[in-house]
Amino acid sequence: MTDSRLQTFAPVGVRDGLVTLGPAALRVRAALEAVFTGWAARVGADEVQLPPLIRVGDLARFDFFANFPHLALAAAAVSTAPDAGLPTRGVPADSRLTGTQLDGAEYVLPSAACYNAYLALGGARLEAPVKLTTVAQCFRREREYQGLRRLHGFTMREIVAVGDPDTVKAHLAEHKELIADFADHLGLALTTEVATDPFFDPDGAKAVMQRLFPTKEEFVSDSGIAIASVNYHRNFFGERADIHLGGEPAHTACAAFGIERWLHVLADRFDQDWDAAEKAIRSYPGADGGPGPGTTAPGAAR
Amino acid sequence: MTDSRLQTFAPVGVRDGLVTLGPAALRVRAALEAVFTGWAARVGADEVQLPPLIRVGDLARFDFFANFPHLALAAAAVSTAPDAGLPTRGVPADSRLTGTQLDGAEYVLPSAACYNAYLALGGARLEAPVKLTTVAQCFRREREYQGLRRLHGFTMREIVAVGDPDTVKAHLAEHKELIADFADHLGLALTTEVATDPFFDPDGAKAVMQRLFPTKEEFVSDSGIAIASVNYHRNFFGERADIHLGGEPAHTACAAFGIERWLHVLADRFDQDWDAAEKAIRSYPGADGGPGPGTTAPGAAR
User: Fold this and answer.
1) Is residue A89 part of a domain?
2) Is the predicted ipTM greater than 0.85, yes or no?
3) Which among A72, A84, A96 has the least Cβ separation from residue B104?
């Protein structure tokens, strides 16, 4: 490539909170994903791909519009009315569709990967805990966007447990250990912080949020970026999504990884040497497809 | 899993045009992706991840709203006005956000993976052709949704060439051969059809579409599903996105693969035996990470 304007092929290009990743960053992303899906396999979580949209009515069940309207992007149909006056060639680059140019929206874009997991289990009467892992393109409106640190669209990997309180709490404890161990391996200095939730609307219903995320803990880089979190929702989603285990609303918990934030922190750690970052990740036990740390034999931990 | 309602863990669950894929189908998807990205590597296409949204103003440059308004889903901000009356717990499942509940939309969800590729190259003065591959979550409103055949949200892998006419036409010829060879290997009976473009609005500006997609050819299963297409856009995107090579607007072409449609056709072909489908794909030269067909040594074709 001889044209320096081809940001496509640079490892990372960011504009207006939207990111383009080139080959080098994508190789690091694939290596990270191998680690996280390896952890998921260890704890017996099935890999699932969930829908890219969530029904308005389903999100309302989770008090989403009461607590997070400022984050939400709806998927609104564009009007096909002859007088809609839709933009044509030559309009300004920052043109918007407004008013009668938009029909209604039946769906909202996910702001986190796990909502659709609880909805997928809606109505279930479980006989045993369920674990799953998924990766989702997520979207959040923010007051401002900052490189890979705070994006309009980003990728979230989650490893989710649904079951009795002890099982889901043990799920979080195990992931806290794994995250700390992996950070040590990479030479990342992470601190654990009980979170001021990034979802949190400073003007909003704090009491509800504290109930929703009473034990959110974040893993924060020395540059102040939360790259992972573990979240215990008690029986909130079990009640709201009607998921039961042993006659009681199930408890839920998830470990969540903001992929682009990991890329940002790793690029810093390895002085923008993406190949060195990839090599460091691939040398982590399990990231090459072999058994992970603490696993005495392939599959033994499943 | 003992609960048959857990559609999450079935290979495929579809509701209202939105799909959930379980582990077995995801393994087949990964095997397919290994084949397609192997082809991309053979032709020297870099892997890039492009933004998940497209600016309204950028799509207008491609006459998108003149030709495809009926397909479009805009990413509209949800109103945070105190009197917006957003839905709360207990609203009907099919609730919609309408009118003043929505603020404007600066972005539209992609209906194809390659628009953002041309935009990423916008303004480039190339000294040589460029090839890239990308996979994108795409969205299309349709009159009706049919299982995996016609989805509201779907995954499209594309292998794109930008350059002189001969290079991009050779790109399509090479992919036509590869697709036919792969279909033979899998025992899929595909026919090639000059397309009635699925984008095509029957009430719309047909003349413009014929100019835009004059040489679209689709690969259609015996059940009538187009699972791949090769598309030659002449210099349309080169002009509109201001991509030049040797002083002329670049020509562009892409090979496109509808991943969920491949899954549908493969499930039919292998009588819902997903493991057999995966095995068949993995036995295709190159799908196991080794060199592809016609490659005399690893990397020789790059």
Assistant:
1) no
2) yes
3) A96
Residues of chain B with Cβ-Cβ distance to A98 below 8 Å are 103-105
Contacts of A20 in chain B (CB under 8 A): 48-51, 120
> How many Cβ atoms are within 10 Å of A296's Cβ, its own excluded?
7
- Report how far residue B9's alpha carbon sits from residue B20's, in angstroms, rounded to the nearest whole number: 9
pLDDT in tens, B90-140: 999 899 999 999 999 999 999 999 999 999 999 999 999 999 999 999 999
Q: Say if residues A302 and A286 touch (Cβ distance below 8 Å).
A: no
Distance CA B248, CA B167 (A): 14
Give the type of residue at B55.
R
Looking at the DSSP bridge assignments, the partners of residue B77 are: A73
Q: Each residue of A151-207: pLDDT tens digit? A: 999 999 999 999 999 999 999 999 999 999 999 999 999 999 987 554 434 444 544
Find out whether A168 and A186 touch, Cβ atoms under 8 Å: no
Q: Give residue B173's domain range.
A: 8-53+110-282
Number of domains in chain A: 1
Q: How far A137 CA sits from the closest chain B CA (Å)?
A: 8
Structural domain contains residue A98:
no
User: Identity (one letter) of the amino acid at B201?
Assistant: D
Query: Cα(B183)–Cα(B129) distance, rounded to whole angstroms?
Result: 28
**Rounded Cα gap, residues A139 and A149, in angstroms:** 13
Sheet holding B248-249, edge to edge: B125-126, B244-245, B248-249
Residue A301 has pLDDT above 70, yes or no: no
Tokens encoding B191: 């026919």
What does the alpha-carbon distance between residue A174 and residue B279 come to, in Å, rounded to a whole number?
34
CATH number of the domain bearing residue B114: 3.30.930.10
Q: How far apart are the first and last CA of chain A?
A: 46
Angle between helices B259-269 and B274-282 (to 10 degrees): 110
Distance from CA of A147 to the nearest CA of B (A): 13
> Chain B partners of A236 at a C-beta cutoff of 8 Å?
none
Classify the C-alpha dihedral B72-B75-B77-B78 as positive or negative.
Answer: positive
Considering only CA atoms, which of B289, B116, B7 is closest in space to residue A13?
A: B116
Would A62 be classed as within a structural domain? no
